[in-house]
Amino acid sequence: MSVVGAILQTCGALAVGLVFLLPWGAVAEEIGDVENGERIFRQCSGCHQIGPGAENRVGPHLNEIFGRRAGAIQEFRYSPDMLRQGADGLTWTFDKLSIYLENPRILVSGTRMSFRGLKDPQDRADVIAYMRDFSASPRDIPEAEPTALPSDPDLAPEILAMEGDREYGAYLSSECTTCHQKDGSDQGIPSITFWPEDDFVVALHAYKQKIRPHPVMQMIAGRLSDEEIAALAAYFKDPD
Question: What is the pTM of this model?
Answer without folding.
Answer: 0.66
